[in-house]
């Protein structure tokens, strides 16, 4: 299990967009779900958006619904997070993580369910 590598973060103005990438060289194809996390005010981190590999189902945080999209490119062994209509409160370090065990609508945002993490990419939203 190699650690994931995120990129694509940067500085954008409110209302702008970013496309984050998560690369997994040598990554196993056996993972069950991939989820993007970021820091939260009263948590170590919060789940933003999850893609379940079994059936393509997605699970969203309220803050992400309608604005963020997760995309998986199996051929390139990469996962992308499209961030649209960014707000200042969206700032933070975004992490991608994969789970080797079953993920559902209840546990998708539990960090302890994920066994493979990247180092994160910084997103700054400021005018």
The largest pleated sheet is described as: 7 strands, mixed
Helix content range of the residues, please?
under 10%
Percent of residues in beta strands: over 45%
Distance between the termini: 39 Å
The average pLDDT value, as a whole number, equals: 92
Radius of gyration, CA atoms, in whole angstroms: 13 Å
What's the order of the H and E elements?
Answer: EEEEEEEEEEE
Q: Count the strands?
A: 11
Structural class call reads mainly beta
Task: Give the quaternary arrangement of the chains.
Answer: single chain
**Count of helical segments?**
0
Shape: globular
> Low-confidence spans: pLDDT under 50, at least 5 residues?
none
Overview of the molecule:
This protein has 127 residues and is mostly beta strands. It is 0% helix and 47% strand. It is built from no helices and eleven strands. Strands 2, 4, 5, 6, 9, 10 and 11 form a seven-stranded mixed sheet that branches. The protein has a four-stranded antiparallel sheet with strand order 1-3-8-7, with no helix packed on it. A hairpin with a 4-residue loop joins β7 (68-73) and β8. It is globular. The N and C termini lie far apart (39 Å).
């Amino acid at each position: 299990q190699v650690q994931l590598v995120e990129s694509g973060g940067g500085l954008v103005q409110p209302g702008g967009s970013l496309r984050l990438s998560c690369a997994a060289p040598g990554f196993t194809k056996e993972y069950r779900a991939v989820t993007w996390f970021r820091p939260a005010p009263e948590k170590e981190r919060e789940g933003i958006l999850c893609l379940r590999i079994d059936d393509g189902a997605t699970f969203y945080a309220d803050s992400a619904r309608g604005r963020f999209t997760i995309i998986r490119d199996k051929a390139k062994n990469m996962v992308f997070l499209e961030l649209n209509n960014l707000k200042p409160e969206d700032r933070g370090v975004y992490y991608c993580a994969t789970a080797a065990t079953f993920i559902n609508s209840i546990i998708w945002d539990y960090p302890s369910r994920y066994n493979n993490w990247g180092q994160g990419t910084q997103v700054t939203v400021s005018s």
